[in-house]
Design a protein that fits this description.
The protein has eleven helices and 13 strands. By secondary structure, it is of the alpha/beta class. The protein has a single domain, classed as Ribokinase (UDP-N-acetylmuramoyl-L-alanine:D-glutamate ligase, 3-Layer(aba) Sandwich).
Length: about 325
Amino acid sequence: MSAKQNQERYDVVVIGDVFCDIATMPIADFPERDTQRGCEFMLTIGGQAGNCAAACASLGLRTALICKTGDDVLSRWIRTEFEQVGVTCFAGTTGKEELQRPGITVSIAFEDGSRSMLSDRGANLDLREEDVNFELLKKTRFMMRAGHWNTEGLFQANKKMLKFAHAAGSFTGLDIGWSAYLGWTVQARQTVLDLLPSTDFLFVNEAEIQELSGKEGREGEQVLLDRGCRNVIVHGGAEGSAWVTREFEIRSPAFDVKLISPTGVGDVFNAGFIYALLSGRGHEECLRFANACAATHLSTRRRGSVFPTVANVEALYTDENKVT
């Protein structure tokens, strides 16, 4: 890290996974086996951490990303894309020959708004504590740990990073995503539950709440609060979003938009929430702005690594007629 970078302060430092996303435009259904169907693809940077960092930078936040890539052509393309969207990317390069590629996800989107994904974690598996410069965590307003399941090498360091950032006066956030590789075993769940006392904001959807807590809905949210998390932020998709604490519960409706690009929508929501929080907006406005970020991303045909700007979002955010 250069002396200039060592002195720079950030609004957000995101730590976690990066992927190359290859996503389809929505199709009606899977094609039959041994057939070929034409469709339009969108090629972008991705990953929970990658999407969140890119969206934060696009909204104007000073954003750093700590991640791991290979040293192949695709990895170099990803690092260039982050630079172009305004993310300061501290990307270590794996020395493991078998992981000399970035994470890659093929996401198949369907017309009903659902999607199916195939993922290869690639160099994300080699992201470790020694790749994290803790000095950066002293110089940020919000530390976001994203892509938990895709970066198993950080499992032992997660609590240390969150506690360190919290002690330095930063907000801390955690988005775990779906446990596609480990499954929701007792041991896998515990790797998340152990982090909750050091987590200011836990970003989860209803399925993740149920798998983590063993309970549904409000009961599950309460379990997570009882385990030490201060704020549970719920991605509800078409049902909108919620902010739940011991003191209050706020729910905000989704925006009614055309479903075009569902990949990364939850990560863009997180970025919108972080932006609104750091901007000093009220509780309801934080959710509403985050919903608008997600809706803007969802309804955009992506040409390259393009993420919502504040102007894009507020054009939808202020249009009351588009709220469901």
